[in-house]
Amino acid sequence: MKRAIRYLRFSQLGQSNGSIERQELYTDQYLQYNNIQLVDSFIDRGKSAKTFDRPDFIKLQAFIAKHYKSVDYLLVDQLDRFSRDAGEAMSLVKQFQKKYSIQIISVTEGIVFDYDTPGSFFRAGLQLLLAEEDNINRSIKVRGGLYTARAKEGRFLTREKPFGYSKVGEGKQRHLEVNEIEAKIVKTIYDMYLRDVPLYKIKEIAYQSGFDRKGNMAIDRVLANPVYAGLVRVEPFKDLPGGLFPAIHEPIVDKTTWTMVQSKMKKVDKVKVVIDDEIPLRGVVKCHCGTPLTGAPSRGKSGKYFYYYKCKHSKHNNISAIKAHEQFLNVCDLMSVPERQIKEIRDGSYASIEQEVKANKKKVADKKHELEEVQRLLNAVEEKWFRNEINKDTYERWYSTYSDHILTITAAIERLSPNQGKAFEILDRNLDLLGDIKHVYTKSDTLQKREFVKMVFNGNLYYQEGIYRTPTILDIFSHNASKMEEKGCLIYKKKRENLSVIPHSGR
């Protein structure tokens, strides 16, 4: 009696025409009709035929290599179950016959592949080519549909939802909706990155806040993902262009912010910046040559460590951190804003807050209208469930969808709801701090100190010949510039706004 093994496969769990049950039925009938003994079966469920890298197909090859002397045939329902790559399939089929003397039988196609029989070889090759052609056509249709959905309709189709969003709806109505809690973390990540917070610090803060994506590049992927700017990335299809297209979902960050982040990611130096509380100005203050100053401790004769800011060029700056910090505190003291100016800022800020509160009231009204509509839909689903017009699975699916939507809208309403009294209270409390910048700087943590220096001096704070120097400083803090120079702590020489205008000195 001849002996056989069989290989069964289908690529999608929802397939019916190529189901395992049907393949088992047809191969069982062939075995019974031809009086062939079945030795073993190898089944790959939900595996594509594009490659041979499939678990049970690998086991099949190992079995043949070990037991080929006791096997005559390898049965498949159709040759496309075996593979859709005609070239690789023909090569492997020939190997099974020539090396192991095992013939491939396609049961429903009635083909016993025999490499030494021209007609058999032609039929098998033709079936494999037709299967590959069918696969190519289906692939074109799928890619065309994906291109239309993304580029023309602006739909986000990736299976995994991006952090910061929830997936709502069913079928073509399925779309991304902002998750207010996660979106706040995403905004913080973008904000910190633009403020030059080191990536390792961004990760620490993000994970403490509830960021749950794993991997060393998780934050990098958030920063690079165009979905947060309301865009979707599309691959080219035939003659149609690829690139970034407007999406239908709501953005979490504006396009300008996202573009600035992409530009910075291209230019950023991959050297890791480590924050040290003893030398908060490391990498923030520059040497007169333009090189950011590094910082490190040096051990004195007594065994005590003293910190210094240094330039990588040995003959340039080597400054005591104690001296540098004392000088900068003197600068901060002289930057304190006069009470008269604080009053002007307060008046202008009041007007701005009132304008924002007015705009938010309109947004809240729109969100409340949307909430009423979703609540109406949820009530309708509950009524259908009570009247037995829908089954339990349908009810639970829609109840979950609408409930999640209600929670999202409610969170947005809470975020946008005006609290004018609290806003003015926060404004008054913080504005008064402008009168004592030295205190503000001293009480700040290291990250805040670094951010403060970059913001105030626009990243242009230098050290030369025992004194700080800058061409740029926020106007609000520049009123005592002459005193800063007199006291030997900072020289402020304003940068010319129009370089085409030649100064009176002729230089």
UniProtKB/TrEMBL annotation:
<dbReference type="Pfam" id="PF00239">
    <property type="entry name" value="Resolvase"/>
</dbReference>
<dbReference type="InterPro" id="IPR036162">
    <property type="entry name" value="Resolvase-like_N_sf"/>
</dbReference>
<protein>
    <recommendedName>
        <fullName>Recombinase family protein</fullName>
    </recommendedName>
</protein>
<dbReference type="InterPro" id="IPR050639">
    <property type="entry name" value="SSR_resolvase"/>
</dbReference>
<dbReference type="GO" id="GO:0003677">
    <property type="term" value="F:DNA binding"/>
</dbReference>
<feature type="coiled-coil region">
    <location>
        <begin position="350"/>
        <end position="384"/>
    </location>
</feature>
<dbReference type="GO" id="GO:0000150">
    <property type="term" value="F:DNA strand exchange activity"/>
</dbReference>
<dbReference type="Pfam" id="PF07508">
    <property type="entry name" value="Recombinase"/>
</dbReference>
<keyword id="KW-0175">Coiled coil</keyword>
<dbReference type="InterPro" id="IPR011109">
    <property type="entry name" value="DNA_bind_recombinase_dom"/>
</dbReference>
<dbReference type="InterPro" id="IPR006119">
    <property type="entry name" value="Resolv_N"/>
</dbReference>
<feature type="domain" description="Resolvase/invertase-type recombinase catalytic">
    <location>
        <begin position="3"/>
        <end position="153"/>
    </location>
</feature>
<dbReference type="InterPro" id="IPR025827">
    <property type="entry name" value="Zn_ribbon_recom_dom"/>
</dbReference>
<dbReference type="Pfam" id="PF13408">
    <property type="entry name" value="Zn_ribbon_recom"/>
</dbReference>
<dbReference type="InterPro" id="IPR038109">
    <property type="entry name" value="DNA_bind_recomb_sf"/>
</dbReference>
<feature type="domain" description="Recombinase">
    <location>
        <begin position="162"/>
        <end position="271"/>
    </location>
</feature>
